[in-house]
Amino acid sequence: MAYNLLKGKKGIVFGALNEQSIAWKVAQRSVAEGAAIVLTNAPIALRMGELNKLAEECNAPVISADVTSNDEVKNLFTKTLEHFNGGVDFILHAPAMSINVRKGLHYTKNNYEFTHKGLDISALSLHRVLQTAMELDAINEWGSVAALTYIAAQRIFPDYNDMGDNKAMLESIARNWGYHYGVKKHVRVNTISQSPTRTTAGSGVKGFDGFINYAEKMSPLGNATSDQCADYAVTLFSDLTRMVTMQNLFHDGGFSFTGVTQAVIEQMEK
Ligand SMILES: NC(=O)c1ccc[n+]([C@@H]2O[C@H](COP(=O)([O-])OP(=O)(O)OC[C@H]3O[C@@H](n4cnc5c(N)ncnc54)[C@H](O)[C@@H]3O)[C@@H](O)[C@H]2O)c1
């Protein structure tokens, strides 16, 4: 069901790779709520070709940008400003990657080249995006920025590896920009801490099946799906949440505040 919550709004959606991507659902849901969007991803992701399907469905241009490149991020905003003939009202930040995770390097044996790269893609990119946006005055008054994160920023999930550090920094960068962009232009910046979700990035984490099932059992409402995450993101982009900023917002079916559930106790007693 659509409510026209984003009627007349314009946005940029980062990180839609394929139909499983959380950003893919956010793009679809934003357009269903009346928004016009620009889609962006790294050049290598565009070469996979899947994004064209979404672009057609959403009637959205695709502008490639590797989020680790100042020039490419600047080019993205310049072209977006031209396309919309003005600034945007919302941004979804969803790029993330850990090469240490990909290569299966244990947290105690990380390769720091990989660590730097992962930090740049997964956390500093939010800083780069917002710094560039501010320089080009690319976000409208009362705009909204949401970045996707995971509870491994606060608690240890051993196989989440250096992504836990990346997410902790991402959340801190969101808070800092929430202050600076709020003061300057009433732009709000939040992070959505989503349940484990079966996507390309999610499934790359060792033991993913185990911890998605554990999270399901540890959440009174069960795990939140990517479609439900998109619903939540749309509310944050809408005018109904104008005073919510600098928050890490758990979208996890109650996982974050549950000590233990009956289902887990029963499992442990077996
Ligand atoms: N899947 C989960 O369990 C889960 C849970 C909580 C939070 N998240 C977060 O949600 C976000 C989206 O991830 P997803 O699970 O939908 O997986 P995904 O693999 O579909 O999305 C990750 C995206 O990052 C993009 N990316 C990687 N390097 C990039 C670069 N250099 N420049 C630009 N883009 C780049 C990829 O192309 C891809 O589109 C991530 O921040 C992820 O950490 C995921």
From TrEMBL:
Known pathway: Lipid metabolism; fatty acid biosynthesis
Enzyme class: oxidoreductase
Keywords carried by this UniProt record: Fatty acid biosynthesis, Fatty acid metabolism, Lipid biosynthesis, Lipid metabolism, NAD, Oxidoreductase
Catalytic residues in the record: Y150, Y160
Gene3D superfamilies linked to this entry: NAD(P)-binding Rossmann-like Domain (3.40.50.720)
Catalytic activity, reaction form: a 2,3-saturated acyl-[ACP] + NAD(+) = a (2E)-enoyl-[ACP] + NADH + H(+)
GO term, biological process aspect, one: fatty acid biosynthetic process
Binding-site list for NAD(+): G15, S21, I22, D66, V67, K167
EC number: 1.3.1.9
GO MF annotation terms: enoyl-[acyl-carrier-protein] reductase (NADH) activity
Record's keyword annotation contains Zinc: no
Pfam families on file: adh_short_C2 (PF13561)
Highest taxon listed in the record's lineage: Bacteria
InterPro entries, A to Z: Enoyl-ACP_Rdtase_NADH, NAD(P)-bd_dom_sf, SDR_fam
Similarity annotation: Belongs to the short-chain dehydrogenases/reductases (SDR) family. FabI subfamily.
Identification of the protein by name: Enoyl-[acyl-carrier-protein] reductase [NADH]
Organism name: Hufsiella ginkgonis
